[in-house]
Amino acid sequence: MRPFTYTRVDDVATASAAVTTDAVARAVQGPGDTAFIAGGTTQLDLMRDGVWSPDALVDISRLPLNDVELDDGVLVVGASVTMADLARHPEVVRCAVLRDSLLLAASPQLRTMATIGGNVLQRTRCRYYRDPTVTQCNKREPGSGCAAVEGTARTHAVLGVDAGCIALHASDLAVALVALDAQVRLHGPGGRRTIPVTDLHVRADDDPSRDNVLGVGELITHLEIPVPDARSGYLKVRDRASYEFALTSAAVVARVEDGVLAHVGIGLGGVGSVPWRARRAEEVLRGQRASMALFEEAAAAELADAFTVTGTDFKPELARRTLVRQLRDVTEVTA
Ligand code: SF4
User: Please, are residues 179 and 171 in contact by the beta-carbon 8 Å criterion?
Assistant: First the structure.
């Protein structure tokens, strides 16, 4: 492992300034990475594997971002709150899609360590990305190609991808967040801004070398999660029942009034290079009389343009079935 500097900071402004100043200084000396670290559950793996060798780490685990507050129907969650603590919050216990996206993720040990901010920003699990002996990876080395397209790709994405990169975004929580219309508060050298979670990540078919839109020195301070006035649920399909990433998943928030879908929000997991907001399916469903036929039509519309390779060709059908079943279970419409 290459030596790196380590700094611990106690407030958000100092954290942002530390990364910004260090990154500017190192850019003058030569390319390098200066980054924040909190729970470290992804970053330490990458450093051990030799995939990522930062010059400097700024530890933000002590920032005062550990609160969860309910503000006018919106849960405001500090970025340092752990997945385990958030899952225990009374409002989250009542919100099935949020609760289950947390409790079905990772393992109890990891959920106790991993922060909400880090989970949303986690790096891809692509085995080729995480193997430094593999030279073809447009995410690590732009222009080098993609080993996964011709390789073993069972756990890769089929939406928001092309032959340049089929990396999956594996967060369960982020899938629920896009279904709930959640937002992220950011703090950076240019000040503060709030953006929808749907605008946070960069699709692989837009730019495989970028995971998100954060600028240098910019960090997530809070999530804003509207508490839904609707039923919800999260269905995760995976190879084993515990400590496994989704092959497909569906986060559904829906309210049916007089048989009509008055509100619907859908996120899909296990299929997208970003936490996938199923806007096409929502358009088919919104304002229409709920029925199994309509659910089938909506799910088919969402998966119509899936990009598959050998190994992922089963995913569009599995994702379609996952979404239809979750729409049925959340709305309790069965015919
Ligand atoms: Fe790299 Fe993306 Fe291809 Fe994986 S899928 S090898 S991350 S370019």
Answer: no
